[in-house]
Amino acid sequence: MSSKERSSTVPLLSQKHSGIPENLLDKAEKAKVLIYETRTKSPGTGQRLLVIPQGIEQARFFQAIEELGQTLGVENVEVNDKPLVDGWYMEHPNTHDMMPILDDEELVASAVVYPSDTEEVQKIVLWANKYRVPIFPISMGRNLGYGGAAPRVRGSVVIDLGKRMNRILDINPDDYTCLVEPGVSFYALYETIQAKGYKHMWIDTPDLGGGSVVGNTLDRGVGYTPYGDHWACHSGLEVVLPTGEVIRTGMGALPGNSTWQTFPYGFGPYSDGIFSQSNFGIVTKMGMTLMPNPGGYESFMYAFEKDEDLEALIEIIRPLRIGSILENVAQVRHVIQTLAVKGRLRTNYFTGDGAIPEEIVHEHARKMPVGDHSWLYYGMSYGPEHIRKYKLDIIDKEFRKIPGARRIDPKTLPEDEYFWSRDRIAAGVPDLVELLWVNWVPNGSHVAFSPVSPIRGTDAMKLFNMGKRLHDKYGIDFFPAFCVGLREMHLIVEIVFDKKDPKKRKAANDCLRELIDDAAKEGYGEYRTHLVLMDQVAGTYGWNDNALKKFNEKLKDALDPNGILAPGKSGIWPARYRKRGWELTKTSGNRSEGNGVASSATTKL
Ligand code: ADP
């Protein structure tokens, strides 16, 4: 045991599949201190009442749990009757949403189970069908801001796949591919590739590296190298269907193949799509392509003075991005984030009510190493120096067309400047800095509004103004960041709120619901959302009398006749739950449950 292992107050990757790599331990320990210093919410004490899911009698539920314990081993079935402990990013719960917008007790599990392999996942699925118990799979449950580990249906049994299924099954240094189980984090994949000495291969990581490669990809998360679209970069799935059968997609269906991770399509309909952002299957293995080391890289940053500069900037970005002169998912972040990512409470800057005044944000930005600005563009150029120079010169010429645009020389920035975190991430090195802005308020939590739009200046301004207006209306600080993909951009707005304060939770919820509706009226839809908002977001995709929703329901009923797998996730409700008030909407209040489920037994498996 190393001395770090003995003394660390944060679990290390060498100790736990969800732990932190040793080289990030100091950062993790500091981040933890900041979070606990401002926390006033205390965890409950003593026993809690177990939440039994609707549709099963209490005695039968306990009988079912006992049976599952006999199948998996009692140590692999944990009943959730203990206080709900929120922890923090590196020590997160698998029983509930640690960043709840509803009451703590709404999105909670009745039990958590830990399968060790695909066969055990099948056994759990058959068990759920036998007893009609809703189950909810998570890989690592770090989908924070979108629901974390929480199930949508109260009292579901969470299947924590990551704890025991965390093997890297293959890394192929010739094909630049890997095959992973759900419990492999970006940290773990990166560290393993480094330990093997494969310097010629990069991974792509999201802002925080503790999430599961499988979980993040299934939820269509993004990273910041040219391989940033994780879903587009995966190749091949192994899936346990809601009725217990196992399939392999793409070339994986061909016995004896050696192309599962190199050709994603196989033959016939491309089925992978229905397993992402859905509730149609449990993914137990996934192939992922890895990026060749580009032979050099260089981060750059530009500052723009005025909010309105966004319009011209986005127009400049579009052709450069589509033409791959701008090579990665670049971020255009607003000045308030420059302040917030320092990890300090907003009360250090402003103690009044309502959204923090712009002058105050600028006043503090002026004193920072990056200087005053409205927007910062964080980008990375890849390849050997002469190739980078060619691209960077074009970028410089174009960006400087905006009056007052400033290139910030990285050499002028201190080591702890956020820029260096973006530098690591855009080079595929997982980090831990991004969560610091959660400390903007005590008991800091976040939930995202993430609409997709064309890469157009007018759309950017429309979304920016809409967001600002509604944040002002609800007295919430506005944290916009535009992430520019290849032909579209996501606006990511993180609402940071104090989870202990029901008024702040409600303001966040109300603001988000109004944002979703207003954005939809203008033709913008979210690419991903929190569990509580999924019904509403799915409802905005209602073209042709909700044809897509009806299609999803048809698939759901065919694949999951007993409606046991993650009911309600992505706004897809199985027949047993429909028309019983389970949808969460603007008017449904704080209650996540509907009125019962149909008892009809459809299929005997
Ligand atoms: P991460 O830890 O990467 O953030 P999560 O485990 O929280 O990811 O999962 C993100 C989302 O994807 C959740 O909604 C979860 O239900 C779903 N999901 C995660 N892993 C699987 C899986 N192996 N099979 C099916 N759905 C999954």
Automatic annotation (TrEMBL):
**Which residues fall in a compositionally biased region of kind Polar residues?**
585-605
Its needed co-factors are: FAD
Alphabetic keyword roster:
FAD, Flavoprotein, Oxidoreductase
Q: Which Pfam families match?
A: FAD-oxidase_C (PF02913), FAD_binding_4 (PF01565)
What GO cellular component is one of the record's annotations?
A: mitochondrion
**Which segments carry the region annotation Disordered?**
584-605
Q: What name does UniProt use for this protein?
A: Related to Vanillyl-alcohol oxidase
Q: Where is the FAD-binding PCMH-type domain?
A: 105-293
Does the record's keyword annotation contain Oxidoreductase?
yes
Please give one Gene Ontology molecular function term for this protein: FAD binding
Q: Which SUPFAM superfamilies match?
A: FAD-binding/transporter-associated domain-like, FAD-linked oxidases, C-terminal domain
Name the Gene3D superfamilies for this protein: 3.30.465.10, FAD-linked oxidases, C-terminal domain, Uridine Diphospho-n-acetylenolpyruvylglucosamine Reductase, domain 2, Vanillyl-alcohol Oxidase, Chain A, domain 4
Concerning PANTHER family, the annotation shows:
ARYL-ALCOHOL OXIDASE VANILLYL-ALCOHOL OXIDASE (AFU_ORTHOLOGUE AFUA_3G09500)-RELATED, D-LACTATE DEHYDROGENASE
The answer on whether this UniProt entry bears the keyword Cytoplasm reads no
Q: Name one GO biological process term.
A: lactate catabolic process
